[in-house]
Amino acid sequence: MGLKTLRLAPEVWVVTGEAYDSNATLFLREGEVLMVDALASRADAEALREWVAGSLRARVLQVVCTHGFSDHLAGLQAFPEASVWAHARFEETFRLERFRSDEETGFYRAPDRCVDAPLSLEWGRYTLDVFPNPGHTASTLNLDVPALDVLLSADIAVGNMAYVAYGEPADIDAALARAEARGRTRVIQGHGGVSSARTLGAARHYLRALEAAVRETRGVPERVREIPLGACLPEDVEGGDFEAFFHRRNLDEVLSRGLWSARASASPPGGEDRTERMSATGAVRGQ
User: CA nearest 62: which of 150, 133, 128?
Assistant: First the structure.
């Protein structure tokens, strides 16, 4: 299958890898590239390096990481000359990640600059407003690009839903609200190319509907596991295999942490978003 490349605008490309459909977004400036996220496998990262050098005739000088999970970090090793910027809690997030392969364990690279407050990056004709947006992880950064009417939203929404494995639902909802407040019509999530910003509202709807459905079950495990995805999505949104997979994972998380019950934990256990993950071909991979 190889890499999927989309020219989003002059001097802006969105590249989606084979592994987990993970995205990298590239901003060009006179042969130099600022890249947001770095794909999910060594093979994808090497293919990206060849494509940047051959097709773009450029080199990556800076990488901004939206969060510290390894399915977005493979290229940190493939572009050793690039400066890495990430949230101040980037390493903490990476260390909480579980079930990595040996290859994925090697993707970490300490950032050259840690970000813990909003800042603006000028790169060629574009201004990227970078801001911490914790919820999905403590290290999540979002990037707003007003000139492109696009928000790079990381994994605060996963398709048309939210994934609650590592954050409190209220914190994830707050992150989604902050992203929605930017007013963009398009988002680039961590996976799957460019999406409508309506996915952010759908994810907030999902959280509220899931909470209501869980409370209605009164914590009976069999009833929790039977909550259908369709009951948690907006009426005009049809969930696919991607959402169905992570919905099942959410139901397991609801039961293990007692979410929306009297025994709910104050904070989630350390974890990562690929305990089991769908590959780009739809196959489930145990991590």
Answer: 128
Q: What confidence tens digit (pLDDT) does each residue in 167-194 have?
A: 999 999 999 999 999 999 999 999 999 9
Contact 9, 188 (CB under 8 A): no
- pLDDT at res. 287: 28
Whether pTM exceeds 0.85 = yes
3-state secondary structure the chain: CCCEEEEEECCEEEEECCHHHEEEEEEEECCEEEEECCCCCHHHHHHHHHHHHHCCCCEEEEEECCCCCHHHCCHHHHCCCCEEEEECCHHHHHHHCCCCCHHHHCCCCCCCEEECCCEEEEECCEEEEEEECCCCCCCCEEEEEHHHCEEEEECCCECCECCCCCCCHHHHHHHHHHHHCCCCCEEEECECCEEECHHHHHHHHHHHHHHHHHHHHCCCHHHHHCCCHHHCCCCCCCCCHHHHHHHHHHHHHHHHHCCCCCCCCCCCCCCCCCCEEECCCCCEEEC
